[in-house]
Automatic annotation (TrEMBL):
Its cofactor is heme. SUPFAM superfamilies: Cytochrome P450. Belongs to the cytochrome P450 family. Keywords: Heme, Iron, Membrane, Metal-binding, Monooxygenase, Oxidoreductase, Transmembrane, Transmembrane helix. This is Cytochrome P450. Pfam families: p450. Pathway: Secondary metabolite biosynthesis. One of its GO terms (molecular function) is heme binding. It is a single-pass membrane protein. Its main location: membrane. CDD domains: CYP64-like.
Amino acid sequence: MSRLFLVLDTGAAVLLVALLFVVYRGRQSARGPLPPGPRGWPLVGNVFDMPSTNEWNTYMSWGEKWGDIVSVTLFGQHIVILNSVQHAYDMFEKKSNIYSDRPVITMAGEMVGWDRTLAVLRYGKRFRETRKLFSQLIGTRNHAERFSHHLEHEVHQFLRRVLREPTSLLKEVRKTTGAVILKMAYGYEVQEGDDPLVDLVDRAVEEFSISTRPGAFLVDTLPVLRHVPAWMPGAGWKKKAQVWADDLEMTCNVPYAFTQQQMSAGTAIPSFTSAHLESNPDPEQEILIKNAAASLYSGISRSRFSSIHFFLAMTCYPEAQRKAQAEIDAVIGNDRLPTLADRDKLPYVTALCWEVLRWQPVVPLGFPHCPVKDDIHAGYLIPKGTLVSPNIWKFLHDPDTYANPFDFEPERFIASPGKTAEKDPRQIVFGFGRRICPGMYLADASLFISCAVSLAVFDISKVVRDGKVIEPVIDYTSGTIIHPRPFECSIKPRSANAEVLITAMHETREK
Ligand code: HEM
């Protein structure tokens, strides 16, 4: 008897699900068809189709099968992937009044607390206020250039440390990007050796990257799970969320308190926080300033990983490296280092930096934009709240835009008789519309200066061990922000003169 009930119950449940599915599909078609995509299952949708590594490749192959706008669902959440940059411009820029919101991310945003920072903030008054503060610091090319001495100083420190310890490249890149942001945001000068604040910020940034990784936490798809008690077996992620929330809280408060204390002592170095605290001491503003300063952190990892991509590219493509060095030698000579002001005189080095951005974009799928209301785009229904992800990686490897897209060829950005330059990748790599990366000028300037001075003084090559050349494996992590897995490279001064130059730059600054 009980088996009969079980069969009836199961049968009824299946019938109900099927009915809901038909009604649901019917409702969709009444409003317009959703973009095509792999066929999912009732209720769970495309759970079994979603890739867990190199997502951008799978999405690109879906594009070849279903077209430039592909849609899937996960437990009822619509996800749209754009495989043509034109759709990204048409939706995020031309219809920016609709497509400027962000999705609610339960784990990273609500539970850890990153929703106080710009990248995760929903569109609205708070977003506009934070973005405005942010833009006042680094929103234009002029702002970035105003920081050129600071950028150059940190990069010279980087050269000196790498000269001393060439095998600790990753650690030194981390320290340099941390130092740039901490000084700009708080007027904090990092210490020699390990710096507690760089370590703290680094930890929080790593946790940001893990917690915003699409699909990393089931609670993002089923938000009701956030009410599961932390003691329940399998709820270890809740403890993790608490530890990460504490780290983020400290990352916001500790450097902020440092600036306040320096200001009271009259010893503060001018910074984003000190400037805003002086002009706006009211407590409501204090939270805004704290959150805007903390928003700077989330950008650190992107700048950092572009520098790592540069070292990987130079290890793999010695020909491009030689051409860039020849340009620096001819234009700058050997008795000084290039500066940001030399950029216009170094077109090949500039093109090489653009190619680093294009070759392996650090944010391959951008951050999702969400429409605030239903939209009909290219004849398809894009329901309110859909996660719309631009496949930036595909845009930058589209053979219609870039010839031989998988090769590393800086020349593609230099026009020559009978050949026009290919599209500037900065029009793609930094995202779109009202959510375009506000750190782009700073990122662009930092990448140029760190590439130019590194090329001026170092030879970067493959490691040779026991007479055998070690080929670096080009393999990437997954997630919102990606970076290459550890690889070996040899970094040596180009000449005795280069070595003198690195030391001299440091000593001149110290006097
Ligand atoms: C090569 C380096 C960088 C790349 C490739 C990059 C790329 C991006 C992309 C693709 C987005 C999403 C844009 C969109 O939603 O359409 C973004 C957003 C953002 N970036 Fe960057 N970024 C870089 C460096 C930086 C730096 C150095 C900072 C800060 C110092 C920064 C701060 C931000 C912030 C705060 C957002 C969120 C903006 C918003 O949601 O309104 N980024 N970035």
